[in-house]
Amino acid sequence: MKILFCLTYFAPNKSGLTIYVDRLTRALAEDGHEVTILTSRHIPVLPKFELCNGIAIHRLPVWLRLSKGVITPGLLSKAWQLIRHADAVNLHLPQFEAGYLGVVARLLRKPLIVTYHSDLVLPKVLLNKIAGFFIRLSNRIAIRLSDSIVTNTYDFAEHSPALKIHLQKVVPISPPIVVEKISDQEVLDFCTKHNIEEGQIIIGMAARMASEKGVEYLIGALKDILLTYPTACVLFAGEYRNVIGEEKYRDRILKMTGQLGAHWKFLGVDSQRERSAFYHRCNVLVLPSVNSTESFGMVQVEALMCGTPVIATDLPGVRQPVLQSGHGLVIPPMDSSALSAAILSILEKYSSKVNAEDYTRAFLPGAVAAKYLELFSNCIHQAGS
């Protein structure tokens, strides 16, 4: 099968969306399918075209940036060429140019599957309001034209303004998640590298530095945690310096964490093996997201795969890993006091690692790819009938 994936950013950009597509496309390519990615050349030094892990990646130069979105004038001709060649088209939203891509897929009578990762919530400044209006309009056009809509959970779809009127087309598919298996020695090496003492309480957060992640609420909670566990430390794994559109938020958070000294450590972008060691060493993983830009939180499942309980905010989709696995707590968003109480409760309740193998099995990339292939095949069949 020939499948075209369209998304605004791809590797080396790191976000939940790009990681999702990377894992899914690798699994499909390994299964022998012809996979093509159409994305932006968001860093000028990136190649316009490359073959990577059997996947053809086409990157178009960026002419203009609108908040977190981009305009790529070369999309008009390239999209027509690649969509014509594909058996099915999979758009990953939010995406500024999704509406145009959806129209082209319809004109060429190609099955159109939209994967809707999250609602778009931007800081309230004039440029963002303008960009947000056009991005949402474009996404709604693509959603309306689509044959099927993939979301991580039905819970999120029911509460999303963009999806709740199209529930008949929604197909929940778990996101593809994998964690490297590592040795006890690698965990010890990780602790040595980051000066983590044996028995020290480690609270983990794995994210990019973005306003929807609610980092400030974990900072507020940590002050209460230190009253009970004076040596406790937060490890923040993920990109925190160069996140597009989040410069002001980053500067504010760095100023706050600078006052915490050794109780807060930024790990930066890490390898898969380092991330696995991080999860294994954490006593609890926290996801204090504040709005529907977060629709699931794959890091929760990654932590559970390593036996670490999680705390997540009570948002549609985001709460599901805790509710379905039973290993963690759900708290109200934007509430440092509730977060600190939940962390203390988890530290008291869990003295050993959890076993969430039955729950996490459905997230393996091969299992997710199989569900996508079934959906693609059904849409192709319906288009031909």
Short description, anyone?
This protein has 385 residues and is α/β, with parallel strands linked by helices. The chain has helices at residues 16-30, 75-85, 98-107, 126-145, 154-159, 184-193, 215-228, 247-257, 272-281, 298-305, 320-325, 336-349, 357-360, 365-384; strands at 2-6, 34-41, 49-52, 55-61, 64-66, 69-71, 88-93, 112-116, 148-151, 170-172, 202-206, 233-237, 264-268, 284-287, 310-313, 328-331.
Layout of SSEs?
Layout: E1 2-6, H1 16-30, E2 34-41, E3 49-52, E4 55-61, E5 64-66, E6 69-71, H2 75-85, E7 88-93, H3 98-107, E8 112-116, H4 126-145, E9 148-151, H5 154-159, E10 170-172, H6 184-193, E11 202-206, H7 215-228, E12 233-237, H8 247-257, E13 264-268, H9 272-281, E14 284-287, H10 298-305, E15 310-313, H11 320-325, E16 328-331, H12 336-349, H13 357-360, H14 365-384
Shape label = globular
Distance between the termini: 18 Å
- How are the strands ordered across the major sheet? 3-4-2-1-7-8-9-10
**SSE order, one letter for each helix or strand:** EHEEEEEHEHEHEHEHEHEHEHEHEHEHHH
Instruction: Report the β-strand fraction as a percent range.
Output: 15-25%
**Which structural category fits the helices and strands?**
alpha/beta
The residue ranges in which pLDDT falls below 50 over 5 or more consecutive positions are none
Q: Enumerate how many helices there are, as a single number.
A: 14
Rg, alpha carbons = 21 Å
How many individual domains?
2
* DSSP strand count: 16
